Structure formats: structure tokens, C-alpha cells
């Protein structure tokens, strides 16, 4: 499912226009991004938690030349699924 398909599904479920659903989705994504930039986390009980993690600096290799390169430390976005989501996707 891509963003356009998600907006269409949200619009249908919430009985709102696609434009309104698009604005809501954009607002949600912006809010989560802002909170993660501040180092916080966003928890949606039952669904999951968006948080940041740290990746240490490391040494890698350029696959084309084989030269050693330094990969800088970086922050990463993480998502941990909640119990209700795990249960829902594992139902048969």
C-alpha cells in the first residue's frame, strides 16, 4: 500500500474527503517526525511505538572499489509493534 492508497482507505473508513484524509495523514507524519527529532517517542497503545535509536560509527567498504570508508554515527527511526497489532496480524 502506498501513500495514495492509504489516503483513499482512510477517507473511506472515516467518511471524509480524500483531501481531508491527506491533510490528516500529513499532520500525523509531521507530528511524529517532530517528536522524534526532539528525541521523544510516540506511543499508540495497542498499535506500537515510534522511537529513535543510535547507530555507532563504523568502518565499511565501498563495494565498487573495495576501499575502506568511515561511516559516521547516525540516529535511526524505530517502530516496535504493540501487543494488539501483533495479535491481529497473527490471527488465522
TrEMBL record:
Q: Which Gene3D superfamilies match?
A: IHF-like DNA-binding proteins
Keywords attached to this Swiss-Prot or TrEMBL record, sorted alphabetically, are: DNA condensation, DNA-binding
- Please give the biological process terms from Gene Ontology that the record holds: chromosome condensation
Keyword Metal-binding in the entry? The reply is no
PROSITE patterns associated with the record? HISTONE_LIKE (PS00045)
Xref: Pfam families: Bac_DNA_binding
Which Gene Ontology cellular-component terms appear in the entry?
Answer: cytosol
Mind telling me which SMART domains this protein's record contains?
BHL
Q: Which GO terms describe its molecular function?
A: DNA binding; structural constituent of chromatin
Matches recorded under SUPFAM superfamilies: IHF-like DNA-binding proteins (SSF47729)
* Similarity section: Belongs to the bacterial histone-like protein family.
Q: What protein is this chain from?
A: DNA-binding protein HU-beta, NS1
The organism of origin for this protein: Methyloversatilis universalis (strain ATCC BAA-1314 / DSM 25237 / JCM 13912 / CCUG 52030 / FAM5)
Lineage per the UniProt record: Bacteria, Pseudomonadati, Pseudomonadota, Betaproteobacteria, Nitrosomonadales
Amino acid at each position: 500500500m502506498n501513500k495514495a492508497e492509504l489516503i483513499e482507505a482512510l477517507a473511506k473508513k472515516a467518511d471524509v474527503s480524500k483531501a481531508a484524509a491527506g491533510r490528516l495523514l500529513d499532520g500525523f507524519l509531521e507530528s511524529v517526525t517532530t517528536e522524534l527529532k526532539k528525541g521523544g517517542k510516540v506511543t499508540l497503545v495497542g498499535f506500537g511505538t515510534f522511537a529513535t535509536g543510535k547507530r555507532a560509527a563504523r568502518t565499511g567498504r565501498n563495494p565498487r572499489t573495495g576501499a575502506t570508508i568511515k561511516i559516521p554515527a547516525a540516529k535511526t527511526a524505530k517502530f516496535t509493534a504493540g501487543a494488539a497489532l501483533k495479535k491481529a496480524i497473527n490471527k488465522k
